[in-house]
Amino acid sequence: MPLFSVMRRGQPPVTVQADNWIVAMGEGIPKLAGDVAIDRLACEMLQNGTVIARDVRTGLGYVILPLADSGEKPDPKDVLPEADSVGTGPIEVDADELEGEDSLDLALKDMTGTSQATDAWQLAIEVLCAHVPCEAGTAVEATPRAGLLFSAVIGPHAPKLRALRLPYGAGFVGVCVSRGIALRVSDVEKDQRHYVAVDEATGFETRSVLCVPVVSEGVCFGCLELINAESGRFSRRDADLAQRVVASLSERLNRAGVQGRPLS
Asked: How far apart are CA 68 and CA 76, in angstroms?
């Protein structure tokens, strides 16, 4: 029976053995949602079988990754207990349980196999937010003429952010994209690079930021930005995880022939 990894940002992934992704989602998401009531989910299946599900009311996103699909008898260590015997806590999955590959590795393989570049942006920020506890995340695309666009947004006020366009060089995102450097800022109020116009337009309060550029061969495609670390500040480990994600994303965009912006 197939195995699925169900992920939500800021929590350990949950592994579910199920006949299909719908059943896996039905079993995995309640374990991650906790006391948060789910009214309605909007789901999108990518060409590679990965499913992105979003709670319409709260905006919380989930990623359902297929891990295995084999008719062979599963190894005993991979068999999960029946749903009614599972405890209330999340099921943590480590590399040994996934035959040497962690959930991030598997997600990155799915991202590099996406058929559309827009899907790769969406999956990249979903996966990164699932592994780095934070309040919000954005995938910012550097376009040749239209400036910086929010191609994917996770968290509060997502519709307002998607409608915004930023000039090059504005804020942490602008510096990250124009110079091709990663930024890790623990207190944005003390940093002059903070672009307060975005907070004013959305009503969102930015406290800490992690921005990592998506670059390849002197060209920047944009960046991934995480906002408000759950612990108060983003760690070096968080930055390393982000680097792994953007490396796979840049490979996918470069292969697709996406036009980026030359680094200044």
From this structure: 14
* Closest among 113, 95, 110 to 12, alpha carbons compared: 95
Same domain, 128 and 242: yes
Q: Are residues 97 and 166 in the same domain?
A: no
Q: Are residues 55 and 83 in the same domain?
A: yes
pLDDT at 134 over 80: yes
Q: CB–CB of 200/234 below 8 Å? A: no
What is the number of structural domains in the chain?
A: 2
Using the predicted structure, report yes or no on whether residue 70 has a pLDDT greater than 70: no
SS3 221: strand
Domain that residue 232 falls in: 116-262
Between the alpha carbon of residue 119 and those of residues 21, 37, 50, 160, 253, the distances in Å are 18, 27, 10, 20, 11
- Residue 207 or residue 163, greater confidence: 207
Confidence of residue 229 (pLDDT cuts 50, 70, 90): very high
Stretch 103-116: mean pLDDT, rounded? 64
User: Among candidates 41, 214, 45, which has minimal Cα distance to 115?
Assistant: 45
Q: How confident is the model at residue 84 (pLDDT cuts 50, 70, 90)?
A: very low
Question: What span, in angstroms and rounded, lies between the C-alpha atoms of 115 and 28?
Answer: 26
CA atoms within 13 A on the CB side of 99: 8
Residues 165 and 219 in one domain: yes
- What does the alpha-carbon distance between residue 241 and residue 78 come to, in Å, rounded to a whole number? 25
Whether pTM > 0.70 for this model: the answer is no
d(CA 84, CA 251): 42
